[in-house]
Amino acid sequence: MLIRVIYVSTAVGPQTSTMTHAILKKAQAWNQANNVTGMLCQGQGVFLQALEGDRKTVTELYARIYADQRHTQVEMLHCESIAKRRYANWSMAHVSLSDIDPATKIDWPEFDPYNITGLLVMARIDDLLASGTIIQSQPS
Questions:
Q1: Helices (H), the chain
Q2: Strand, coil or helix: what is 35?
Q3: Phi, psi (5° rounding) for residue 17?
Q4: H-helix or E-strand containing 139?
């Protein structure tokens, strides 16, 4: 059974390109080997991530992510059984939510990732994908 999980978290320290590259490199390799797909939106002090794959695999991965000390306030926004992957093209695509670049800034004045539904977050992730602002990805 396939599932999709979407979560939000707050970065503990600065979201440096070195940290982001390390996360993506490890995630892309692990996800590809374990048939997990997804998308990571990172910036403005938050991580928004969608993960898709086998229920047991994604559940165990989420538990490891939850325990990661690089972020706090980890909250699952959405979990659902799926028949088809939404992010099947990426072992882990990455969108930077820049404070400077208006093309990748979350431009919801009232945006609070802890107080919106997972479906709204998924719609925003889809908008970011459609706008061509993926800055790094590796096909699965």
A1: 17-33, 55-67, 118-130
A2: coil
A3: -65, -30
A4: none
Which residue type, as a one-letter code, is found at position 44?
Q
What is the residue-wise DSSP string for 86-121? SSTT-SSEEEE--SS-TTTS---TT--GGGS-HHHH
What would the pLDDT profile of 15-69 be if each residue is shown by its tens digit?
A: 787 888 888 888 889 999 999 999 888 877 888 889 999 999 999 999 999 999 9
Closest CA to 140 of 83, 87, 89: 89
Q: Are strands 93-96 and 134-136 parallel, antiparallel or unpaired?
A: antiparallel
Tokens standing for residue 32: 């590809």
Q: How far apart are CA 72 and CA 75, in angstroms?
A: 9
Best CA proximity match to 92, nearest among 125, 127, 126, 138? 138
What are the chain's domains?
2-136 (3.30.70.100)
> Which pLDDT tens digit goes with each residue over 113-125?
677 788 887 887 7
Q: Of the candidates 40, 39, 47, which has an alpha carbon nearest to the alpha carbon of residue 10?
A: 47
